Each structure stands twice: as structure tokens, then as C-alpha cells.
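agent> step 3/5: call structure_predict on target 'Exocyst complex component' (Phoenix dactylifera).
agent> reason: downstream docking stage needs a structural representation; sequence fetched in step 2, passing through unchanged.
tool.input:
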Amino acid sequence: MPRRVAPDSYSAAGGDAERQDLHQLSSAICNGEDLGPFVRKAFASGRPESLLQSLRHYARSKESEIEEVCKAHYQDFIRAVDDLRSLLSDVDSLKSALSDSNTALQSAAGPLLSFLDAYLEARAVARNLSAALAAARLCVRVLELLARANDHLASDDLYLALRSVDAVERDFLDAAPHPTLRRMLLRLIPAVRSHAERKIAKEFSDWMVQIRVASRHLGQVAIGRASAARQREEELRIRQRQAEEQSRLSLRDANSSSIYSLEEDDDSDDLTAAIAAARGGGGSGAAVDAILGFDLTPLYRAYHIHQTLGLQDRFKQYYFENRKLQLTSDFQVSSMTPFLESHQTFFAQIAGFFIVEDRILRTGGGLISRSDVDALWETAIAKMVSVLEDQFSRMQTANHLLLIKDYVSLLGVTLRRYGYTVDPLLDVLAKHRDKYHDLLLSDCRRQVSEALAADKFEQMLMKKEYEYSMNVLSFQIQTSDITPAFPYVAPFSSTVPDLCRIVRSFIEDSVSFMSHGGQLDFYPIVKKYLDRLLGEVVDGAILRLVEAGGLGVSQAMQVAANMPVMERACDFFFRHAAQLSGIPLRIAERGRREFPLKKSRDAAEELLLRLLEAKLDDFMILTDTVSWMADDPPPNGNEYANEVIIYLETLVSTAQQILPIPVLRRVLCGVLAQVSEKIVGLFLSDSVKRFNANAVTGIDADLRLFESFADNQSHLFGDTEDLGANELKMPLLEARQLVNLLMSNHPENFLNPVIREKSYNKLDYKKVATISEKFRDSSDRLFSTFGTRGSKQNPKKKSLDALIKRLKDVS
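tool.output (status=ok):
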């Protein structure tokens, strides 16, 4: 077939653009590409005819190529057709053979196919049954876990219930065999957890209420144990001091064993002791129930449940906030109840709170941290300091302040054992030390005044031995270790044991306040306040009593007799303070001072002496009967001297039963000095214009009576009789030297310094000159009775004139 040639009109009408489109279309067809873009473009441009014309033109151009191919392969086509014809015959024969084989196979395989269908059906049933059994077993396990969870919930075992629910959620929720079961699990699992959370929250709330009551009683028990331990320590220190003073090895060994026993007792736990005491029936019903009900299991259970729920951090915060609120409520001090009545409950509640927190910190598994406990303690101690400052500032009774101080110090000892810092509390106690002692001194001042006002200042009568032990031995004011016979009349009045009891109570209260306050060596402080008590209060009260002027001779004598006893008592006071302060007696004795009641002692003796001098003045009125120009000397002395001697003997017989020997000695010396002064005063008196030798002889007789009295009293003193007599005669020395001078044959020797120092050292120049001027006879001449009336001058008169002249020159 001849190849067709495209008409010339196509190339002329298409132009370049059509040729380009035709080329692109040909390329797309040759490459087997999609012709959709060309079709859309043709219709979009509104020229689909051109596309069709291009396609036709392309088809015509390929027809010529086909013809050429056919011409080139014509023989091959003929052979292929022949092969196909021969193949068709073979296919027909094969088809008949296959048909026969199929018929034979169908006849043979029919029964087998029926068996195969039955097998497949049975296999499907078996598979379904296996799936059903697996689902049933899964449901059984789920139901078993759910039933177990119900049992745990019914028995209030929330942890195991939650574990069961967690197992269901972990192992069976995603593998639930049926959507209904899955929906049920999705609804029940949160419900169980919510129930457990509510249940444990209620238990925790109940525990918070119970632990508050239990904490108060636990704090009381812990502080009580601290008080008992303190008492044992004080007893131990007493035994140790006794052992130290006695230096006996056996006592030291006994004390050492006591130390070990105390340490063993102190190792026991406060909670254990509280429970033991409650079970032993040592407390009230409420206290026993509270202590026996003390159990941290509900708290730990709540914490464990919240850990299981994954809410442990939230529970920690919830616990801390609730305990903080509870502690804040414990800080409330009722204004309706005096703090003195409520302070033990207040501090015991706080002590129990922090004992519980310490236990939870050590055994709670991280429920509360050390920083949280420290924060609570800082809040608590700041509040306690504030409360103490406020309450101490209001108190005006020393005993109230001491009671609270003791309990606070026991609180400090108790909580220090658990590692809490209590220094701020001790600082508050130390800050109010001066106020306490001022109040204590004020109380003692009132008690001393009442004791002095109630005393009649008579010797104290003790009928029984226990009275002697209570009023004498307990203050170590006895003068002998021998127990006297009863009834016993003491040399002191009831004021002495009363004052001793007041001072001893002051010492014990002072030591009680100072001890257990963080300061070890507090004896100097106790001694300082004891000096103030004795020097300001006791000495001042006795001094005011003496200076008031309402005491008689017997009362003044009793006051003076009380002072030496008080001096012995003061030694006991300082020893007692040293012993209670825990220092050896030898150290305390090194710092001993003079008698603190020295002013009142001197004032009492001065008052007694003034009263006796006043009494002597009454007797000295009898000197008006003395004849200064008598013709003969009185045979037995003057009347006033006899009366004074009688009075002095009566005074001594009474005073020696009351006054100690040193005091009696000083009183007698004072009285005799007054007698000597009165005798010298008689010669100097303006009423005595002149006197003669007979009058001097009478005064000499009087002095001899007084000196004889002094000799008779020398046996009362512990020294030798000669020394005692000389001591009592010393107050009479001025009068004796004056009388000796007037009776001397050589009175001019007074001007000799050696003789004057030896024999007339007590005489005054002016007094001697004045008295010598009065020494005349009845004719107004000096020493007229010693000489004759002749012209020859008496040597004694001449010596006296020379003395008078020389004394005038000296004047």
C-alpha cells in the first residue's frame, strides 16, 4: 500500500502554533502520557475541532507506518497464523482431556469436600469455644479480684482493696472481653479509689482529734518523768556531797551504782512509760483512755493509702497544714482562767505535740521533714517566749513565778532530750531573775515584819524533842551536841526559828529558780541575794524594831540574846546555800564575810545599854544623900552604891540565863563604864562645890564594892578569873585612877609622864584640874584634914597645890 502524504493545505492553515501543539500531542501519545490536559485546554480555548483534527492527522501518519511494518513482516504473520491453527487443534484435544480429568476428579473428590466442609465448620466452632472459654476465665479472674476488693472494703482493709483494683486496672482493663465489662470497670475503679480516699480522710480527722488529747497527757507524763529524774539527780548530788565531805570510798561506790541506775531509768521511752503508767492504774480514766489510745497507725495507714493512690505529696502538705493549725490553736491562752492554773496544761500540750512529731519524724518514712519540724518548733518557741514575757510582766507573786519557772525548766529538759533548742526559754527565765528575787524579798520583808510583830521577846519553851529538832537542830544553832532535858527553855525567842524558816525558804526558792536554768555556777548569785535578804530585810527590820523605842529592858535583852544565835544561823544559811548550789563547803567558807546583822546587833546592845544606863540614872539620884564634907567616912559606902550593886546582881542572875557570855561581858563593861563615868561626873557636878577626904574615902569604898562585884562575876567568863576580873574592872579604871590620885600623898606625880602613863592614863587634865580645885576642907583650905593648923605646910597639900598650879599653866 502506497504511503499517504499529508495535504499541503494543513501545513499552510495550521501555522507554527498548531505545529507546536501537534508536536507536543505526538510526544505525549508516544510516551503514553495522559491526554487530559490537552483536552481541557482545547475545550477551554473553545477549539476542540483543532484537537480532533490533530488526532486524526496523527492517526493517518501512523497508518502509513503500520503499513510499512505489515509489509516488512508479512511472511512472519502468515507463519504465525499457521502456528495458531495447529495450536488450536492441540488446545481442543487438551480441553477434552481436561474435561475427562475433571469429571473423574469430581467424582473422586466429592466425598472429600464434604468432609473438608465439616472439618472447617468444626474448627470454627472450636475456635469460638476457645475464645469464649478465655473470655470466661478472664471474667472469672476479674470478678475474683473485684470480689476480693469488696471483701477488703468490707473489712476496712483499704490498702489491699486498692491493690486489687490496681491489678484489675493494670492487667484486665485493656483486655476486657466485652465493652459492657470495660465500661463497668471504668466506672467502678475511680469509685473505689474515691471511697478509700474519703474513708481514710475521715480516719485521719478522727486521729487528729484523738492525738491532741493524747499529746497533752503524753506531755504531762514526760514532764513528770523529767521532774522525777531531777529529784533523783538532786538526791544523788546530796549523797555525792556527803561522800566528798566524808571522803569515804564505800559511799563513793554506792553513789556510783546510783549513777548507773539513774542512767538506766532515763533510757526508757516517755511513751512506753506513759502506757505502763496508764495500764498500772496510775491516772484518771480520761488520761488512761488517751494514753492507751495513742496510736500512730491511723496516720501511717493514711499516708500509705495516699502513697498507693499517688497522692503522697498532697497528703504531706495536708498533714503539715493541719498540724500547724492544731499547734496554733494550742497557743490560745484563756483569759477566763488564771495562767497559774492553766500553765501546766499549756506547756504539756506543746511538749506532747513535739514528742509526737519527733516520733513521726523518726518512724514516719518521710511523712514530715526535719525542716518542717524545725519550722513548727520555731513558731512554738517564739509563741511560748511571748506568752512567758507577757505573763511574767503581770505577776506580782514570787511563788507563782517560781511555779511557772520550774515547769518551764522541766519542759526544757524534756524537749532537749528530743533534740529541740530551748535556749530562748531559758533566756526569758534569766531575764526575770531580778524581778523574781525582788518579789521574793518583798514577801520575806512582810513575813519578817509579821514575825517580829508577833514575838513577845520571851525565852522560847520547847516541851518535846521534835520541837527542839524543828526549831534548833534543823538550823544548826545549838551550842552543844547533847540533847537537853525537856521541857527546854531556849536562850532565844520565837523570832529566831521564824526568821530562820523564812531565810531557809528564801534560799531554797532562790536556788530552785536559779537551778536548771542553763547556768551551772549560780552560787555567787544566790549568795548576792542572800546578802540582800540578811542585810536589807532582816537587819533592817530588826534595826527599825530597836529604833522604834517600844522595847523594855527584858525585851531589849532578849533581842540582844537573839543576835548571837542569828550569827550561828547565818553560818548555816551560807552553808545551806552552798550545798543546794552544788559546791563544796570549803569553797563557800573561803568567801565568808562579817556578820550580816551587825548593825542590828550593835543597835540592840546599844539599846539594852541605854535602858540599863537609864535605870542606873534612877539609882544615881540617891547620890544626893552623899555628904561631901563629912566629918567621918561612911562605914559601908554610900547608899546609892549598895542599891546599884543589888540591881547589878539581879541583872546578872537574869541575863546570864539569856545573854551569851560575850554579850553579857560587853553589857557589864558598858554598865560599869557608866558607873565610872557617873562617879567622875559627881566630882565634876556643879552641885558639888567642895569635898573632903572623908567623901573621897566613901567613894573609894563604893568603888571597892563595884570592883568586888567585878571580881565575883569573873567566873562567868571562859577565860581565867584574873583575866575576866581585870576585864570587868577596866571600865572602872577612870574613877579608880581619880580616887587613887585624890588619896595619893604625892598627887604631883600626875605630872610625871612615866607615872601618869602607868597609873593615871585614863584621866584628863581639865577634869583633874577642876576636881582638884574642889578638894578642900571646911576652913576653905586644901587638905586641911591631912595637916595641922600650924604654920608648917602639909607636904600632900603642897604637892596638890603644885599640881593645880601646873595644870592651870598647861590650860
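agent> step 4/5: record observation. The chain has a mean pLDDT of 78.
agent> proceeding.
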